[in-house]
């Protein structure tokens, strides 16, 4: 079965600094999703990547999928307190059919003022 | 507003009792999912349903049961056979369009504590 490894598991950064979270797969990713979760709440969809080399940005968050489609990174520029939370990557484990997502263990991001 | 609702937000049950978690969506999505999240871990798929009156086991279905009698509803029953039921449960839904990839929309979650 496909497994996703996120790094780091937790991250503390000073407000205004840049940061990167990585998500590595043991198999080729057919679809890679990034979600954000506030503690004790549901997941908020951030971005989906599908093609090798694809890059998407929304406000100060940029997500990339490498050419081999086995690693993705999430980069936050000029971090703000609102960026704090748990970031999870999820991958489509089956090509076509129902999206049976497999998730990484999450990265807990803390922003210090 | 369209969305997914889960109720209740917090649920306490005694060991040995079955409990049913509610999940309702008004997004007109075909597919619905149940996940379990434990502290410091990602989500694990319990059951999913692509269409009414049909559902499939996920990675950790033992001790759980579901039904999909209506498109909008996908309740999850945690049975007494589930050995470690205390967890955060998340329901999600998505458009089901065959080979196309579509993001899943998540509910706010239900935190179940078995005493």
Structure description:
The complex is a heterodimer of chains A (113) and B (115). With 113 residues, chain A is mainly beta. Chain A is built from no helices and eleven strands. In chain A, strands 2, 4, 5, 9, 10 and 11 form a six-stranded mixed beta sheet that branches. A five-stranded antiparallel beta sheet of chain A has the order 1-3-8-7-6, with no helix packed on it. In chain A, a hairpin with a 5-residue loop joins strand 4 and strand 5. Chain A is globular. The model of chain A has no long low-confidence stretch (mean pLDDT 91). Chain B is an all-beta fold. Chain B is 0% helix and 49% strand. Chain B is built from no helices and eleven strands. Chain B has strands at residues 4-7, 10-13, 19-25, 31-37, 43-51, 54-57, 64-66, 76-78, 87-94, 105-106, 110-114. In chain B, the strands form two sheets. In chain B, strands 2, 4, 5, 6, 9, 10 and 11 form a seven-stranded mixed beta sheet that branches. Chain B has a four-stranded antiparallel beta sheet with strand order 1-3-8-7, with no helix packed on it. In chain B, strand 5 and strand 6 (54-57) form a beta hairpin. Chain B is globular, with a radius of gyration of 13 Å. Classes of the chains: A mainly beta (113), B mainly beta (115).
